[in-house]
């Protein structure tokens, strides 16, 4: 028969064993909220790309700041090689978040959109800097005597193609700026953000100017896959909206834009909210 001291020792040992077992279970079990958040996108500077295996870009910095503010540390950025694969992965829950997509009814069937668009992307007419006092654009008739180049496979807007302007098409959009600078065109519609960044990288920013208002402007969103099993997606998007609004107001978005666009970052930030 065990003495009281022995029984006490036995209970103590049992308690230690139970605590050890519980700790082992907790360490081996990974809760749904602890799993890695998978964020996918297409490489396109200055929005998102890989540099020496490190993701970088405007989109990357915005999402990283959002996750830092939320206290989420377990995430990964992945890049895929085409848009079809990007949407396939989101449709099937192989990714959780897709970076920078426009909204349409087809995508809304399998994607959850936040209320806040983190970017408004513009297509504007680029002209030679020396012509910025000569060429104005408020309506298409202002460009009636201007030689305009455009990429044949770009939709731009139906109003643009039906404007009756002198539009000459080229096979690829990357030919437009070189042909503008070679004086073969007087105005070309381009993705404003991409062109600003490219002009800074390739040292021709002082040679071009842009006409305002934009030919086209569209909101872009960071979206959640409906098929994703990441927990509390709706709560995530609600908090995401709050943080994007905070970043807009407190200057964090502006600092990210200036990081990649230099002085043009401020002008672009202002244009995001002017109508």
Automatic annotation (TrEMBL):
Q: Which InterPro entries match?
A: Solute-binding_3/MltF_N
Instruction: Please name one Pfam family that this protein belongs to.
Output: SBP_bac_3
- Which residue range or ranges hold the Solute-binding protein family 3/N-terminal domain? 36-264
Which top-level group of life is the source organism from?
Bacteria
Q: Where are the transmembrane segments?
A: 12-29
Protein's UniProt keywords contain Membrane? yes
Which keywords annotate this record? Membrane, Signal, Transmembrane, Transmembrane helix
Q: What is this protein called?
A: Polar amino acid transport system substrate-binding protein
